[in-house]
Amino acid sequence: MPSSKQGTQHLGLAHDPAPSHWSDGLTDTATCTPTTDARSGDAPSAPSPLPERCDVCIVGCGITGAALAYYLSRHHHTDADGDDGSSTECPPLSIVVLDARTVAGGATGRNGGIMWPDTSDPFEVGGAELMREFVATHHVDCGWVASGGVSLVGDPLHPEQARAAVEGDDADLLDSVTAIDPVATLGAAPGAFTAGYKDASVVTLRAARVALALARLATDNGVTLRENCPVTDIVGGGAGEDAVVSTTIGSLQCGRVIVATNGWLPRLLPELGPHIRACTNTVMSSAKPVPPHLRWNLAAVSCGEGAKEVYCVMTKAGTLVMGGLRDSGDMWSGDDDQAPGDSRIVPLLENWFNAAFPELAANVEFDKRWLGVLGYPVDGMPVVGQMPGRPNVEVCGGYCGHGMPRALRLARAVAGRIVGNGVDSDALERWDVKRFF
């Protein structure tokens, strides 16, 4: 078959990256088929053969890919008939999901565990509500803690350089937050922070379990899932042309391919290389629950902005997860998540924690450290839609660390466009990948 564009490449992901806190217990909750031993760290079992053809192939089964499969599998699609624009209902789409590891084996299972929507962004606010509704409706056991988060102002390592409280362009944010005392509320070191502001919309959750629930529901609806099945090439997909997805276990002909691999998008679509960068994020978690009298009645705490941010999560089980300070290492060094955190960043995070919360730090031992890979489009906005010259090859991802309030809603919008009952078409237009070409 002639190809509109070739040059995609094998993801080549390590099978056994350093385990994350969020991967604990996934074997017990996974009900997707075929099951594998990959979550326990053993060698992956061989997946079943691929079908010869499908209507839609989704590459990547993190929260975006699983949500795409879920929303596509819920609806029949419609095709326009005749010149009058009328439409008829067509049979359900045949859908295949491929992942080089297992469900949530990438960023979804290696993130910081926070959903902190931008309250000034209606899309993120609505996306967070969609996530809440899904978790509640399907009773997903994901450690949901909706007790809000606190943004701290200041630098505990350099208190003399601490900024004043929210000012200038951030003044409007005061309408959605409540001032708190960092010492009284969090047990912070006196003088470490000049102010704290609580945002009630912040939630912590185990996104990997949400992805598993989405994948389970999708497979219940007839979706075919193949884990431990790396994609090696995608060819074709031009106008009126099927795409062929090659994998380590065979090839699959499909009417449409959606690549949902976030920070690894350029590995499969090299033409995106100049426009999307992969960024590694160091995260660590405590070995044991924090003593009850030292636990925060909050989902999360954040200090700093962007790549300078440090965040801490108090999980439902009482363990502590901390990450950030990406700019203190080589955050653009690549998309390899195998190492147990960035060795330059780990001690900096520990120093920050010791200075900010000395009593809490004396009672916390971090036993897990890992890397997560984030996808950063150069303009800071997600990418979605059909690749130029390849209308049957699509992308969905690039969340710049804001996947939790964005991914589910964006996947629903993409699925809606495909099946003919579109929602959020303005977001699809605003974040269309063609803006880079």
What does this structure look like?
The chain is of the alpha+beta class and 437 residues long. The chain has 10 helices and 20 strands. Strands 1, 4, 10, 11, 12, 13, 19 and 20 form an 8-stranded mixed β-sheet that branches. Helix 3 crosses helix 9 (403-419). The longest helix has 17 residues, at 403-419. It is elongated and about 65 Å long. The two termini are 25 Å apart. 49% of the residues are buried.
Continuous helix count: 10
Which residues sit in consecutive blocks of at least 5 with pLDDT less than 50? Answer: 1-10, 28-43, 161-171
Choose one word for the global shape: elongated
Beta strand count: 20
Structural class: alpha+beta
Beta strand %: 25-35%
Helix-residue proportion: 10-25%
Query: Helices and strands, in N-to-C order?
Result: HEHEEEEHEEHEEHEEEEHEEEEHHEEEHH
Radius of gyration: 22 Å
**First CA to last CA: what distance?**
25 Å
Question: What is the mean pLDDT?
Answer: 87
**How would you characterize the largest beta sheet?**
8 strands, mixed
Descriptive terms for the model:
8-stranded mixed beta sheet, 437 residues, 10 helices
